[in-house]
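Narrative of accomplishments. A recurring question from our advisory board has been how the design workflow behaves on a single, concrete structure rather than in aggregate. To address it, we present the structure tokens for one chain from the evaluation set, followed by the sequence designed for it. No filtering or post-editing was applied between the two.
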């Protein structure tokens, strides 16, 4: 069964043009893949911490040597990587700030 990962970044919710475009795409994808699974990740609602010294230490420590605290620090990162790697298709519709020509910090 194919899996689609949908990554949203706009904080505007139902008022977002990009989210409406994504909904249209997902609807068409579901029609083409009726047995498919859709996983939605909303980066506007996900508290993404910055990379810190403890995160780096945990990341570079072999898994079998990680303390429970290290595993907790890496938990969200591991979840996000799992979502990404398990997807057959990915749609990322960032809210591009044209006046600044940059992508949202949540995708940086």
């Amino acid at each position: 069964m194919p899996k689609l990962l949908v990554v949203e970044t706009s904080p505007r919710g139902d008022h977002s043009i990009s989210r409406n475009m994504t909904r249209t795409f997902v609807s068409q994808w579901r029609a083409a893949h009726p047995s498919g699974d859709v996983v939605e990740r909303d980066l506007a609602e996900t508290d993404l911490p910055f990379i810190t010294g403890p995160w780096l230490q945990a990341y570079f420590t072999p898994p079998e040597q990680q303390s429970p605290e290290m595993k907790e620090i890496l938990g969200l990162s591991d979840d996000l990587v799992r979502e990404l790697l398990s997807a057959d298709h990915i749609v990322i519709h960032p809210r591009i700030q044209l006046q600044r020509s940059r992508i949202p910090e949540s995708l940086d």
